[in-house]
User: Fold this.
Amino acid sequence: MQEYSFLSHFESWQITICVVLGMIVFYWAGHLIMRRVMLKKIPGENKTTNAVEGSLLGLLALLLGFSFSLSNSRYDKRQSLVIDEANAIGTAILRCDLYPDSVRTPLRLVMRDYLEARIRYDDAGANRDSILESLRATEFAQKRLWKIVSDAGQFQENLVRTNQMVPALNEMFDIASTRLALSLAKVPDLVIFLLFALCFTGSFLIGYSDDKQPEWGIVSSFLIMVGLSIYMILDLDRPRTGIINNNGIHQQITALRSMFNNP
Assistant:
């Protein structure tokens, strides 16, 4: 498993605080520059600045909406995949009963190991070592499951059973791979950095267009709302950490342990 995102090395709240502080610095810099050049302003310059400011803030709002939509859609997809995986594992466990005890018993034992590996994958959080260990256990269990089923399928009496079991295993394996790929897919860093650049530039222009005393109530509202939006975008894109996570939906997979209570 590789880590593709530079920003993933930092917590969402850390990035948000840095961006908000940067916006304050840029706003204040723009305001100070305006105060210095106020006496030398060219007539009509303020109208030009206001037009650029409005266009830039509109672009910022558009990019915020796009980034939020992208991260939210991936969050929904991750939740949907957890439910799909729970259903696929449950189906595979039930189809173990199609085989005679000579195949059913070892198959269920390996299925239990596979289920525990997937539970550890969900419980690993942001611990990279735990994630890698659970992925290795998942891959090992997949190979064992496939060997048991493929060996059993060599016998004529197990042909129909195997034809039922193979699609269930394929779906179960495919969903595990899809979940891993989707967990590595983030909002591109380039989009996030462009969003930060627009935040800083917009803050500078707001400060530059304010030739009076700063209205900190309005400015603070702008900073807080933009900061919260950025935090939501980052947090939705990190289901293993933060406030918005998939811990509740993961209980769908943990509940499958009850299927092994009755041998």
User: Anything to note?
Assistant: The radius of gyration is 27 Å. The CA atoms of residues 56 and 171 lie 47 Å apart.
